[in-house]
Amino acid sequence: MRFGAFVPQxxxxxxxxxxxxxxxxLITAVADTIExxxxxxxxxxxxxxxxPVPTQEPTYEAWTLMGALAARTSTVRLGQMxxxxxxxxxxxxAKVAATIDVISGGRLEMGIGAxxxxxxxxxxxxxxxxxxxRIGQLEEGVEIMRRMWTEEEVHYVGKYYQLAGAICxxxxxxxxxxxxWVAGGGEQLTLRVVARYGDYGNFGDTLDExxxxxxxxxxxxxxxxxxxxxxxxxxxxNVVIGATEAKVAERLQWIHDxxxxxxxxxxxxxxxxxxxxxxxxxxxxxxxxxxxxxxAGLAYGICYFHDLGHTDEGLRLFAEQVIPALx
Length: 327
What we know:
Layout: E1 2-6, H1 23-36, E2 41-44, H2 62-72, E3 77-80, E4 83-84, H3 90-104, E5 108-113, H4 118-123, H5 131-150, E6 154-157, E7 162-166, E8 180-183, H6 190-197, E9 200-202, H7 207-223, E10 232-241, H8 245-259, H9 265-276, E11 279-281, H10 283-295, E12 300-304, H11 313-326
Parallel strand pairs: 1-2, 1-12, 2-3, 3-5, 4-5, 5-8, 8-9, 9-10, 10-11, 10-12
Antiparallel strand pairs: 6-7
Helix pairs in contact: 2-3, 3-5, 6-7, 8-9, 10-11
């Protein structure tokens, strides 16, 4: 298995309690640790307002961070899980991504999805159409991005987007194009987009769900005569790791205490369940769980450590003991 890790960014309130002057030094320090520690990639979220509820806590913009981290790092790959197709016109996004791929020397991973955070859409003045429309826009957007990266001039007439001779120069460093991670597990629409365009798929909150959706994706691939093994399968994990079970319990309590002053009680209960049902345990316990995912076909795990805004102990423990056991 290969692994990536999210940097603290604020979206999930991981920077709450830290002065703004400390945010960028902290983000870059974590990026350096990820780069040195055996993770293949670092990741950000593409969101504007915090979750589980909007607050006045900072959320740093994804593609601004991509450019800055591309210049700040040397070897680690850089991704977003995932960019909302709705937030930027796809031709423009292709141009941004190509620029960052050049800045990074060919280290960009393009994560893309249909978008879902309605409160955020409306807050920023975007229309929030029904899912079938957003997924239709996603499919056209992904096609446009691939063409922008591989063709000299793009003319496109779709249901949602039209281009009249768009030029993307410079082209990305990576050939034939920047790897596309199409995120989402919608069985009738999104997984068809993964089958047609994805170099990577990203889905599955549980192992049973992952196995089921992998089968659906394979069926969609067969319909278009594509080998499903061409698509690398990934999933995201909320990791709470400790050297001992007592340390794990201590970290879970820290997460509860961290959220308690910020979010309503109903949402606090939700966050407690989210983390307790995540990838939780000692290194040995986590290796046992991930081994089952690997046997089911998972090739890439992207890890979120909530306490990275305050300590990198969990990330380091995961890198030292879990990654070598599953690599």
